[in-house]
Amino acid sequence: MYYLKVFYLQKNLKAEITEVKDLTYDIKLVRFHLIDPATMDFKPGQYVQLKVPGIEIIRAYSIASDPKNKSDIELLIRYVPNGQATTFVHKALEIGDKLTITGPYGDFFLREDSKRDMICIAGGSGKAPIRSILARLKAEGMPRKVKYFFGARSKRDLYYTEEFEQLAKEYPNFEYIPALSEPLEEDDWQGEVGLITDVVDRNTKDLSEAEGYLCGSPGMINACINVLSKHDMKEENVLFDKF
Q1: What distance in Å separates the CA atoms of residue 53 and residue 33, rounded to the nearest whole number?
Q2: Which among 5, 43, 135, 215 could bridge 122 via Cys, Cβ 3.0 to 4.6 Å?
């Protein structure tokens, strides 16, 4: 992993909720419009911390939005049973509510000075930072070859599918590869099946000159690192945040 530090002025930002939208049965899109200060600069891939009002709880969430929009921050928040922060977001948060976020944070972000091919791997709400990274690459005309592997259990866990399929139609050097580990019969799934690490293993070759972007649970990240290493990706070219 890179250990390059990025020193942004991390600050408290007051924001108003302008959208709360179900993406799946357990993942919500939450859009924050910044009030004070009115903008925030961030690198695609970084995260913010959300302060839950009324309780001493602070949680980190990766930014899912386009970095060129400095006034509105989008987060993808997955419900965790009995989790105080995610229960608040999924059960109580409403449009018009005002909250405080801090940031940006993180050494996991798009290396914009690199020209390496990219392997992106995510699962669940880990789609957030990859979405932000791809927004930047799209704005630049997708100058690098990118394979994006997204792991889910069944079809109901997939989201933003049309968005990434459309991106693949617009840019031949971008490939979106969703995979289901436990597809249901009614899913009528014709795509990749298996653990995302196995799917990556059989769909990649020499990665000695490639760059990896990982977002998911610590266990998933560790398993992905092992697969990328098997295909000769250099340790310093594997990027991730664990939180």
Answers
A1: 17
A2: 215
Residue type, 68: K
pLDDT attached to residue 243: 65
Q: What's the burial of 56, exposed, middle or buried (CB within 10 Å: 0-12/13-18/19+)? A: exposed
Three-state DSSP class for residue 229: helix
- The tens digit of pLDDT for each residue in 93-130 reads 999 999 999 999 999 999 999 999 999 999 999 999 99
Minimal CA–CA distance to 129: which of 155, 34, 197, 137?
A: 137
* 3 confidence band (pLDDT: 50, 70, 90): very low
| Model-wide pTM > 0.90 | yes
Report the alpha-carbon distance of residue 138 to residue 100 in Å, rounded.
Answer: 30
Tokens linked to 49 = 């911390």
Distance CA 84, CA 90 (A): 10
Residue 55: which domain range?
11-105
- Position 11: which residue type? K
> Looking at the 3D structure of the chain, how many domains does it have?
2
Does an H or E element contain 27, and which?
strand 27-36
Strand partners, 48: 61
| DSSP output for 173-223 | TEEEEEEESS--GGG---SEES-HHHHHHHT----TT-EEEEES-HHHHHH
In a domain, residue 110? The reply is no
Q: Do 172 and 214 fall into the same domain?
A: yes
CB-based contact 43:6 (threshold 8 Å): yes
Q: How far apart are CA 72 and CA 92, in angstroms?
A: 21
**CB contact at 8 A, 209 and 118:** no
Beta-carbon-side half-sphere exposure of residue 119 (alpha carbons within 13 Å) = 27
